[in-house]
Design a protein that fits this description.
The protein is of the alpha/beta class. The strands form three sheets. It has a 21-stranded parallel sheet that branches. A hairpin with a 2-residue loop joins strand 1 and strand 2.
């Protein structure tokens, strides 16, 4: 059989048309980079998710460490990181800790750095066993400590008004949440005013003598730190006194805790002692028409609704201290949630020798506080959270931060968290 040129051309054409072997080879070559790309995408997505969790943990750790007193920052940071990321004692495939951290304290800042070699799942096939990831957070401590005077109204003019004719001294800062552009904070100062810081979300209007430090306008809003705290007593609690109770006394008097429905009015000309416990006022005010001394340790005033303010008329000497144990330890006065969206008028006239040890929590109250004589000179700690405060001082007013020995007394939410913020 003779092979002609026509046969050769036909066989050559058939060979070129048969591509099954070429396709398999090409597919094999393409699959390698495709699998590598998919593996990279899956592992990098997982590593990014882990890095986000690490950053959140570092932020929380930095804030918590900044609140902690000097020397305890590292232990607190490690605790927060472990809660978010798992134990650092766990080992990865290389035998190294799963994550490592460093805490750097520099004057008023606390930084937390976290690193981890994240273990890959698919990329290990191609020799890439880990992906290095890291997070960094820095928190600054308020140079003046946390705010112990917090004014919550979001937009009122003169949300904080101070008329000072003598002396106001605070060991912790003032915070005003009002956004009013011209006078969220208004002050006339003819005497001595001293505070570590004044933070105002809106604007300020100042008169009289120089105020130092000047307010920091445009400051961030500070949320109510006790907004989630439960009320001290159930609203269904039975009335101890079913209607307004009035006590008229010319001699020494002792009063016990209870639920005073309709309120309590005290007319006294001699010392009044309050027994320890919760004094609940429902549907009526606590009214003190007296210039006598009213004393109580481990007491708490609970103003349950919008009809139950505190009215201190005359010039009562009030010397009261909050409970030191229990869920509401450190809370001297508590305003119930039924007063929400109200502007409940509180009137406090205090005379020389008065002191309030604890946190006064009246988030829906407009307080007119007139100070004659000395206020809080004998208090170990006084904080105030109110909707609006008008403070008129003709005597001397002190707001003290707790001593080292008294920190356990301070409500946890007021221990300083509002005095720190993330800066990086």
């Amino acid at each position: 059989m003779m092979i002609t040129n026509l046969h050769i051309k036909r066989h050559t054409l058939i060979l070129f048309r048969c591509r099954s072997g070429n396709f398999g080879l090409m597919a094999a070559l393409v699959m390698v980079p495709l699998m590598l790309a998919v593996g990279f995408a899956i592992d990098f997505a997982a590593a990014h998710h882990r890095k986000t969790a690490m950053q959140n943990a570092a932020d929380a750790a930095a804030l918590a460490a900044a609140v902690e007193r000097a020397g305890g920052e590292d232990a607190v940071a490690h605790k927060f990181l472990a809660a978010h990321l798992g134990s650092s004692t766990a080992m990865n495939v290389e035998g190294a800790p799963a994550w490592e951290h460093q805490v750097i304290v520099n004057r008023d800042t606390v930084a937390v750095a976290v690193e981890e070699d994240y273990q890959t799942a698919i990329m290990q096939i191609f020799g890439f066993k880990t992906i290095p990831i890291s997070a960094y957070a820095k928190a600054v401590r308020s140079t003046g400590g946390a705010a112990c005077i917090l004014i919550l109204d979001p937009g009122k003019a003169d949300a904080l008004k101070i008329i000072n004719a003598n002396a106001v001294t605070s060991e912790c800062g003032f915070q005003v949440n009002s956004s009013h552009a011209q006078r969220a904070f208004y002050m006339e100062n003819q005497g001595k005013f001293s505070a570590p810081s004044i933070a105002v979300h809106g604007g300020s209007k100042l008169g009289g003598k120089m105020i130092s430090p000047p307010p920091v306008e445009g400051s961030p809003i500070v949320a109510d730190p006790l907004a989630a705290m439960a009320e001290p007593l159930a609203r269904t609690a039975a009335c101890t006194s079913p209607s307004l109770k009035t006590i008229n006394s010319d001699g020494k008097t002792t009063i016990g805790p209870g639920v005073y429905c309709g309120g309590l009015t005290l007319n006294a000309s001699d010392d009044v002692t309050l027994k320890p416990g919760i004094y609940t006022f429902r549907g009526g005010a606590l009214t003190l028409n007296t210039s006598a001394k009213v004393m109580g340790k481990d007491v708490q005033f609970y103003f349950e609704d919008a009809q139950s303010p505190l009215l201190l008329n005359g010039a009562a000497i009030l010397q009261i201290s909050a409970p030191t144990t229990g869920t509401h330890a450190g809370i001297l006065m508590f305003q119930g949630r039924q007063a929400k969206d109200s502007n409940v008028q509180f009137r406090i006239n205090t005379s020389a020798g008065s002191f309030y040890t604890g946190a006064i929590y009246l988030p829906y109250a407009v307080i007119d506080w007139n100070v004659s004589g000395s206020l809080n000179a004998e208090s170990s700690y006084t904080a105030l959270i109110a909707k609006v405060l008008n403070l008129y001082v003709s005597g001397t007013a002190f707001f003290k931060e707790p001593t080292e020995a008294g920190t356990a007394f301070v409500p946890a939410a007021l221990s300083g968290g509002s005095g720190v913020r993330l800066v990086q």
